[in-house]
Amino acid sequence: MSILNIRGTKAIRVAYGEALAELGAERPDVVVLDADLAHATTTCVFGEKYPERFFNLGIAEQNMMGVAAGLAISGLTPVASTFSIFGAGRAFEQVRNSICYPHLNVTLALSHNGLTVGEDGGSHQSIEDISLMRSIPGMTVLVPCDAIEMRKALRAAIDHPGPVYIRVTRPPAPYFTEDDAPFTIGKANTLRPGADITIIATGLMVYQALLAAEQLVQEGIEAAVLNMHTIKPIDRDAIIEAAGKTGRLITVEDHSVIGGLGSAVAEVLAEGSPARLLRMGLQDCFGQSGTPDALLEHYGLTARHIAENARKLVGDKQ
Amino acid sequence: MTEAEVQALCRIIRSDIIKMIGRVKSGHPGGSLSCTEILATLYFKEMLADPALPPEMRDKCILCKGHAAPALYAVLAHRGYFPREELLTLRQLGSRLQGHPDMKKTPGVDASTGSLGQGCSIAVGLALGARLKGTPQKIFAVVGDGEMQEGQFWEAMMSAVHFGLTNLTVILDHNGLQIDGANDDVMCLGNIKAKLQAFGFEVVEADGHDIGQLLAAYRKTTEKPKFILAHTVKGKGVSFMENQAGWHGKAPSAEETEQALAELEA
Topology of A8-175 in CATH? Predict the structure, then answer.
């Protein structure tokens, strides 16, 4: 039986725009900011419905972060969007000092990150955003894996006191998580049990991890799959439990292995329950232009690559 | 409080600034002394700033040049936000009075600032928020001239005009000096008035140490966002600090503190 119940395809950013517009009706305190990328981030859907609560700041991300902080101080609930490279990268210090230092209720839903940005190339493929955002005290970091989880993440972020970064991805992607699956910040979801190895994945890599687990089961390898939708606070208990049960773990992320999911898991294991770990992701290198699929193949981030690594790790008695 | 009383209070506030920085041997006296009247006139004459009012009812002052925190703290203490004795805890471990303004720690501080260029953006957000909520709140942002070298400052100015924020007033404490020397030598700001006018601001000039002139500038009605070019003297009131860039971020010695206090209390 397939472990994947694919019910359709939708870009996570499209689900974000729809969910945001829905929230606009329920929550008159929600205001939305963008920096001339409203059609790409899909905040334009909210902007068309609630123009008085939508602020396009133009190509000025640093200012946008400060304006979001001011709106939060005045008691509103701002959600700001642009591409991750500009929001988490260029405006890092504004996020740190204007938003996070006073622990303001601002949600940064930043899109277009990792290799799946695709053709725009390495300059626009943020592979450090999780690392940057995770390092700021009090910041929560969410990475939804599909359109359904995106909706839940946005609601959780807006209700959460303090700043939240949501990593919203670009390309159309299958959605497969259950409508009634819980989404609790800081609590990983086990999508599949397995005794031989644990694959911890985040974002679009969760789908690839499930495909890998399907391949592996035909060879008699039972791989557990953990959907780590929250990178911070990381679910220590789930990681330590997985390490105890399987002794071998693989992390998979469309992000640098430095500072992202792989680092977060390694930190927990090193302090809590040493186990064999292999970190899949960008190996300290930039991306380049190409289709998202071609890039994931080139940089070794497909189900096939995950399965190969799992086989090696399970076969390695050390 | 009358204008003369505010003027007299400014001498006491200057003494407080010197005492705070001198006693704890850390802080920025030059820029604190230059914006004393700007802040005192705001808090005692212009803003709805009674600490008894709920925060959402009060007007807001964003001290973008957050290194002048000692001046803000002294004004807030005299305005009744916290006891004046607490001023001497400035910059000490566990103090509510951080090196730069921290809205989470200090009563009366409206935003956490000090990283230059960021405060005006926060003020734009507050002005947008006040307008959206339909409150008559006035938003003031106090900036330093060196700070205008930050690109984000100009982003914020552009957006203030774009959104037509007539509830926003930006006040420039124009003392002409920054850490490394004169603005003109470090990175020339050019014709500030013409630049802000070209951005779409109503620019009003004032003597930044004259309560009457400042008040007239604060109250001048305009259809545009307002920018007050307040001409000031860095280190104002202490003879050996006046117009000296070297006193930007240096604490006076015990002897210098006594000399400064003697001048201010003469």
Answer: Rossmann fold (3.40.50)
Q: Which amino acid is it at B222? A: T
Q: Among B119, B126, B152, whose Cβ lies nearest the Cβ of A74? A: B126
Is B126 within 8 Å of A73 when comparing Cβ atoms? yes
Distance CA A261, CA A229 (A): 10
Is residue A2 pLDDT above 90, yes or no?
Answer: no
A122: left (phi over 0), alpha (psi -120 to 50) or beta: alpha
Q: In this structure, what token pair is assigned to residue B256?
A: 């210098």
> Rounded to an integer, what distance in angstroms lies between the CA atom of residue B241 and that of residue B260?
9
The strand ranges marked E within chain B are 60-63, 139-144, 168-174, 177-178, 181-182, 202-207, 226-231
Rounded to the nearest 5°, which phi and psi values hold at A236? -60, -45
């000399």: which residue's tokens?
B259
Q: How far is CA A228 from the centre of its chain?
A: 9
Q: Is A231 helix (H, G, I), strand (E, B) or coil?
A: strand
Q: Which residues contact B5 (CB under 8 A, 6 or more apart)?
A: none
Residue A245, exposed/middle/buried by CB under 10 A (0-12, 13-18, 19+)? middle
CA distance B64 to B72: 11
ipTM topping 0.95: yes
Domain range summary for chain A, segments of one domain joined by +: 8-175, 189-315
- Rounded to whole angstroms, the Cα distance separating B85 from B216 reads 33
List CB contacts of B62: < 8 A, sequence separation 6 or more: B110, B111, B113, B119, B120, B122, B123, B126, B139, B140, B141, B142
Cβ neighbours of residue A99 closer than 8 Å, sequence gap 6 or more: A65, A68, A69, A72, A106, A108, A163
Residues A70, B126: C-beta atoms closer than 8 Å: yes
- Rounded percentage of chain B residues whose pLDDT exceeds 70: 100
Domain A189-315 has CATH 3.40.50.920: yes
For residue A221, give how far its alpha carbon lies from the nearest alpha carbon of chain B (Å): 52
Identical topology for domains A8-175 and A189-315: yes
Give me the mean pLDDT over the A35-51 stretch: 98
Judged by CB atoms closer than 8 Å, whether chains meet at A66 and B163 is answered as no
Q: How far is CA B142 from the centre of its chain?
A: 4
Parallel, antiparallel or unpaired: strands A189-192 and A223-227 = antiparallel
Alpha-carbon span B228 to A220, nearest angstrom? 75
User: Strand pairing partners for A249?
Assistant: A198, A277
Q: Is the overall model pTM greater than 0.95, yes or no? A: yes
Nearest to B125 among A62, A67, A93 (CB): A67
B125 and A103 within 8 Å at the Cβ level: the answer is no
Q: What is the pLDDT of residue B162?
A: 98
